[in-house]
Amino acid sequence: MHIAMIGTGYVGLVSGACFADFGHQVTCVDKDEGKIAALLRGEIPIFEPGLDVLVATNVKAGRLKFTTDLTAPVAEADAVFIAVGTPSRRGDGHADLSYVYAAAREIAAVVQGFTVVITKSTVPVGTGDEVERLIREANPSADVAVASNPEFLREGAAIRDFKFPDRIVVGTMDERARKVLGDIYRPLSLNQAPLMFTGRRTAEMIKYAANAFLATKITFINEIADLSEKVGANVQEVARGIGLDNRIGTKFLHAGPGFGGSCFPKDTKALVKIALDHDVHLRIVEAVLAVNDNRKRAMARKVSSAYGGSLRGKTVAVLGLTFKPDTDDMRDAPSIPLVTGLLDMGAKVRAHDPVGMEMARRELPDIEYSDDPYLCARGADALVVVTEWAQYRALDLERLKNELAHPVVVDLRNVYRPEDMAAHGFIYDSIGRPPEA
Ligand code: NAD
Fold first, then answer.
1. How far is the CA of 169 from the centre of ligand 1 (A)?
2. 30 lines ligand 1 (CB under 6 A)
3. Which positions are annotated as binding substrate (predicted)?
């Protein structure tokens, strides 16, 4: 199969490299000349574990190419995937589809022979219809089928998720398109991944419903954490106690500072907007959004109350900036409202992140950055763990305490055990756990 991947970001690059690894001929296209130039030099523009090796192997094998010009790869492709961004539209929270539609028009101008055009980007229900209309309008003789194939990978575990998915959803009623997509994903049938064929609109809906459900699960346990704090229960044990019930499941039940990242915030917002356009109130999802927004803002207050007073003029050390470990992605990271909240309180902020500091500097230019977690803690009046990078789990607690001017630790990911922290003499606060439970 010849595949063109339009958009070489977190999803496009991982999907393109994995398809090449399955044995397909893949060309990843991106408008960002810097990104393509880096890839042509053998550099990976994002941090994703294992991606460097996967890309290098498949480039070397001649199965994976990069370009800024979609003409040739689209012309020879059996399948063209659209994996461009669909960020929140400024002002109203709708998904901004301008990149998807621009890509559709560009594809229409150069497509040749029967080609399946597939939206991998997360798009509102009905976008496939519009992509098809745009292509037919721009090129009435084009022989295309437009399908939806939403992506469920998680940054930080993207290659594994792509190669061992729980399911693959393909939305199309076109027999030829089903055959092409069946062939593209055939290598995965060895892993017994169910390939689920649905209508196009259903596939588009599945992606938003999945993300909204996961965001709801996180928000639910966050509220239970708040209550646990008040009543002296331990939310980690509550999560385990309910999660071991197969009907509930243990995943996405980790209480924390509120969900962030490149998908959940924008996709839940977009789903609420899609629903309103159809006169439907998704009140649960609306509540999830409101609760989550309040929660992220409340985290700075949690730090000042752990410190026990005003943070004006005090230094707060922040460990972890990316929205989760094993990625450099800072989009909608909970660290952003936390840090801005601390700055608003008059605190000075010094931060460390193993890989995200370059990206973070763009979002948070007014703070100090430190290359080492202990240096970050040095002389600080309080320390906050925001992202649960593995290296923070193994910090030398004695050394950490000696670095801090005041031994206040606020652990927004429940990385440490309250009893260990108490034994080391920290003033310790975490999420949904009694101080010394
Ligand atoms: P991204 O911003 O990392 O990458 C998008 C890329 O598309 C950018 O490099 C941009 O330059 C390029 N682009 C935009 N218009 C283009 C055009 N006309 N031609 C060529 N390139 C173009 O975005 P992402 O995180 O990879 O997300 C892509 C889509 O996948 C979004 O809809 C997102 O919601 C969805 N998604 C993301 C994830 C995730 O974990 N990041 C997971 C599942 C689904």
1. 18
2. yes
3. 152-155, 207, 252-256, 260, 324
